[in-house]
Each structure stands twice: as C-alpha cells, then as structure tokens.
Specification:
The protein has 12 helices and 2 strands, in the order ααααααββαααααα. It has 267 residues and is mainly α. 25% of the residues are buried.
Length: 267
C-alpha cells in the first residue's frame, strides 16, 4: 500500500464505491424483480439505466477482493480473518446452510436441497449476506480513516522523535557530530520499528538495515525510499562504529534531515 494518507483514503473510498456496485449487482442477479420494483416505485429512478451501470459480479469480485483483503489486513488487522472467512469455505464445516454459505460456494454454484421435493436450503442468494459483511468491513475501514483517533498515536510518536532530532541538531551546532548522528540514527530506528509494529510485521532484528530490508520485502517502501534509508544507515554506522574517520557536518545534517523526511512520509 502507498504511504500517502490522502491516496490511501482515496483508494479505500474507491473500494467502498465498487463494493456498493458489486452488492447491487449481486442483489439484482438474484432478485431482479424486487430490485426493479424498489427502484421504480420507491426510489423513482430508471431501473434499466441503473442496471446498465452495474458490473458483472463474477468477473469484478475477485480483483476487488484481492485489493480489499490487503486493505483490511493493514488497516483493520483484527478483522482480517473475518473478512477472509466470508469468502473461503470453512475446513471444519460439515454441512452447508444459509448461516455458513460463503462467497466461494457462490462461485462453485453450490446449491443445497432437502426432501423429495428438493427444497432449496442454501443457494447463490445466500452469498449476499456474506458479501454484505465484507462490504461493511471496508466501510469500517473508511470510518476509521476519518477518525482523528487513528492519528493520535502517530502524532505523539512523531512529536517525540522530532524532539530527538532537535537535540541532534543542537549537538551539530556544538560540533558533537558523533553524538548527533547517534541520536538521529536511533530516532530513525525507532520510527521504522514503529512502522513494522503498526503494520503487524514481526521483526527479530531491529537495526536500521534489517528494518529497511523488511519494509522493502513487505512492499511498504519503494526502491528510492529503500536506497535513501540505506544511505542514512551508512551515515549512522559511521557515527557510532567507524573510528577511522570523523563524520562530516554535511553527512550528519543529511542524516538528521533524511530521518525527518522518513518520519513524515513512511508510516
């Protein structure tokens, strides 16, 4: 996922809109007469024009599901298993009914009947409640993004790291370059660790270089960001490990400014 908050919000809004259209498409497929009656008599809208704008659920669902699943995994991780569960067939399921019918059953055209008259117990229309739940989870993500509570922790953490960078800048003015670089590097390391924690990415080693590799592997950052953080890591190591030469003011300034940029753009 992209790191730009406005772009993330735009992507989630797009998924929400697509979800509305998919839900209407599924309802129209299963209950066309009821849908036409509702649009004509209740909404007073042209049903045929509305119908023309609907996607084909069987072809449009999977691209939506793949993207929506990734969004829920990152932004609503505690509900990720629920989101997937509304699609995948439960391994422990012994019989199929309307309560446990999932979207995968719809795609396999599963119909369960009972009795001599073959009364339908569960069929494709039972996929509607399952998709409704997936759609509601995307709506919950959108609501969460609109909540200021989502940004409180990030803002507090960023404020603390900003204070550390201010200390580092003051040390540069006093020609204490190694100490300044050490503080800036630790601030960068803390931020990258927080990014992993927020994304629920498990880490065992927490050096800047290790965290940089993990974030790139999980496609949280792109190659330019990866290369930039790698350069910052090299300057940090120069400040805290390399005793063969002293870091230059310009290098430590780059580390401080670069760390500030990462804190504000990578989350």
């Amino acid at each position: 996922m992209k790191n730009n908050p406005e772009q993330i919000k735009a992507d989630v809004k797009r998924l929400h809109t697509q979800g509305v259209n998919l839900l209407n498409a599924l309802r129209d497929e299963q209950f066309p007469e009821l849908m036409e009656q509702h649009f004509t008599n209740v909404l007073k809208k042209n049903y045929q024009e509305f119908k023309k704008g609907l996607p084909v659920f069987k072809s449009a669902y999977h691209p939506w599901y793949s993207e929506a699943m990734a969004v829920v995994k990152v932004l609503l991780p505690l509900r990720y298993s629920d989101f997937v569960g509304f699609y995948e067939k439960p391994k422990s399921r012994k019989e199929i009914n309307t309560d446990n019918y999932v979207i995968a059953d719809y795609f396999s055209e599963t119909v369960v009947t009972a009795g001599f008259d073959k009364k339908v117990i569960a069929g494709p229309d039972a996929a509607i409640p399952a998709f409704e739940q997936q759609f509601h989870l995307i709506a919950a993500v959108l609501q969460t993004l609109d909540s200021s509570l989502l940004d409180i922790r990030r803002e507090v953490q960023a404020g603390l790291l900003d204070a550390e960078l201010d200390k580092a800048a003051l040390l540069v003015k006093n020609k204490q370059l190694r100490a300044a670089g050490a503080i800036a590097g630790i601030a960068l390391e803390k931020h990258l660790e927080q990014v992993c924690e927020r994304r629920q990415i498990k880490v065992t080693r927490k050096t800047i270089a290790d965290l940089n590799e993990i974030l790139k592997k999980n496609e949280i950052i792109d190659f330019p960001d990866y290369r930039h953080i790698g350069l910052l890591s090299d300057i940090y190591l120069l400040c805290v490990q390399n005793k063969k030469r002293e870091p230059e003011i310009a290098e430590v300034a780059d580390l401080i400014n670069g760390t500030d940029k990462v804190i504000k753009t990578v989350f």
